[in-house]
């Protein structure tokens, strides 16, 4: 072995196993410079929002096979490689990025990801990262206070889908405490609108209830739970011999961005002894905006809530909170008897509350965004994106040929242009790299769908989108 005080000449690759600190510093500088240029040109909208190079060509351009085979990257070759890698990615900071609900991350949370990548404190057990574990604990308590769960508990998971699964597991434990050891009773059901995120149906399947255990609730034309017809839904489930273990409402729905009426739904659940789950993956962040908090009125009636930070709290993927009104319910999800987490001399282990064994320092990235921008700054971010989306709706409505089926409540807006194939419009925009948007079905009809998530998106962007769509046909 080479003693670590003898330095190997630069740029010749020797398989050494401790960090070469000089290499690290140079490579990190190249990263910062590369990212600074990338974010600047992205948010200035100077480059295409998306490139669609075929994977074979991309693998060649990035030299993937060669690097895998030969190794030997240096700070210099890395700099070049990173440039090519960034150029081929999808630019979430770009004003014309209007697609999936993933944040254009703010840099404090990016720093947290970098730090975690370097130190790797998988803190589900306290002894594997006391600082990271404590940061998560405090972030969770802040979230619990926002939701209105003073006696609550929580955990951060790698994403909303896993968070929904965890919440459904807690609901199952409440309805069938023996399920953990004895297996799942065949009569359990979940009541949810057909517009619920697909991770709910998946959770039902993963939990052993089967997809058919998801009993669809009656909804209005826009997919929102029809409160007046809740009793019918419950009856339907019971008549089919089902025992509903949870009812799921959306805050807000993925497709439309519309909020279910949380308070009356919560009151119905309380009256009928139903576990009330609010999927706030996207829209719970509106709790931070004075102007929009009313959309979540009644969320404190929930038994469980999920809330993604990587959507509207500006962290990178993934960081999602599972929050429960009674702390013990979350621990009961993964065993038969409940327990509670306290600050103790020995710390605390979140591992009893998660599907994951090791997990990333998810709290730290939420914490750093909060520490930098404050709760107020994040609330203003939410309000500003919601306002821009609303502005898009106003602009689209005024134009001939555009049809908007509803007034948006969040930063998600659906529309159609003309009677033609909307998917074709989307395909053209992506192909030319001018705009990145998605589509969604409303009442069985395909619509174009815009999610305003980048702070760089402004009225000019939206006017340009409308101009472009109108010019296409
Ligand atoms: C995005 C979303 C999810 C899934 O979250 P991931 O973090 O992408 O797994 C669940 N529910 C709703 C309402 C969502 O919008």
UniProtKB/TrEMBL annotation:
Database matches in InterPro entries: PyrdxlP-dep_de-COase, PyrdxlP-dep_Trfase, PyrdxlP-dep_Trfase_major
Domain of life from the UniProt record: Bacteria
Keyword annotations: Decarboxylase, Lyase, Pyridoxal phosphate
Cofactor(s) listed in the protein's UniProt record: pyridoxal 5'-phosphate
Pfam family, one: Pyridoxal_deC
Protein family (similarity comment): Belongs to the group II decarboxylase family.
Protein's name in the database: Pyridoxal-dependent decarboxylase
Organism whose genome encodes this protein: Microbispora hainanensis
């Amino acid at each position: 072995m080479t003693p670590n005080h003898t330095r190997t000449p630069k740029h010749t690759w020797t398989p050494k196993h401790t960090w070469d600190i000089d290499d690290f510093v140079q490579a990190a500088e190249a990263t910062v410079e590369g990212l600074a240029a990338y974010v600047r040109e992205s948010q200035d909208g100077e480059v295409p929002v998306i490139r669609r190079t075929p994977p074979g060509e991309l693998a060649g351009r990035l030299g993937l096979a060669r690097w895998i085979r030969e190794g030997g990257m240096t700070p210099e070759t890395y700099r070049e490689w990173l440039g090519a890698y960034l150029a081929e990615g999808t630019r979430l900071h770009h004003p014309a990025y209007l697609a999936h609900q993933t944040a254009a991350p703010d840099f404090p949370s990016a720093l947290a990801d970098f730090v975690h990548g370097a130190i790797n404190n998988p803190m589900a057990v306290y002894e594997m990262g006391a600082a990271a574990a404590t940061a998560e604990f405090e972030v969770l308590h802040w979230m619990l206070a926002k939701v209105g769960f003073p006696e609550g508990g929580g955990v951060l998971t790698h994403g909303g889908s896993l968070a929904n699964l965890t919440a459904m597991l807690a609901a199952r434990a409440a309805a069938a405490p023996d399920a953990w050891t004895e297996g799942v009773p065949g009569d359990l059901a979940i009541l949810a609108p057909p517009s619920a995120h697909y991770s709910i149906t998946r959770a039902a399947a993963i939990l052993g209830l089967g997809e058919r255990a998801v009993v669809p609730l009656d909804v209005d034309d826009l997919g929102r739970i029809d409160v007046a017809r809740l009793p019918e839904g419950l009856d339907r489930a019971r008549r089919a011999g089902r025992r509903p273990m949870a009812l799921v409402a959306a805050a807000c729905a993925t497709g439309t961005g519309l909020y279910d009426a949380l308070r009356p739904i919560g009151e119905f659940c309380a009256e009928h002894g139903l576990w009330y789950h609010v999927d706030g993956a996207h829209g719970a962040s509106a709790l931070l905006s004075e102007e929009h908090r009313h959309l979540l009125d009644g969320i404190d009636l929930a038994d469980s809530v999920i809330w993604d930070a990587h959507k509207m709290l500006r962290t990178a993927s993934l960081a999602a909170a599972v929050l429960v009104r009674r702390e013990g319910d979350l621990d009961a999800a993964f065993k038969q008897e409940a327990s509670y987490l306290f600050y103790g001399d020995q710390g605390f282990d979140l591992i009893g509350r998660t599907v994951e064994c090791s997990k990333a320092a998810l709290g730290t990235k939420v914490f750093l965004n909060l520490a930098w921008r404050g709760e107020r700054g994040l609330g203003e971010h939410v309000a500003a994106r919601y306002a821009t989306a609303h502005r898009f709706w106003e602009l689209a409505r005024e134009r001939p040929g555009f049809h908007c089926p509803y007034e948006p409540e969040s930063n998600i807006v659906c529309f159609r242009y003309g009677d033609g194939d909307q998917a074709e419009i989307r395909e053209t925009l992506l192909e030319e790299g001018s705009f990145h948007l998605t589509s969604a079905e409303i009442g069985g009809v395909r619509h174009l769908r815009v999610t305003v998530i980048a702070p760089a998106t402004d009225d000019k962007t939206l006017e340009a989108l409308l101009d472009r769509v109108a010019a296409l046909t």
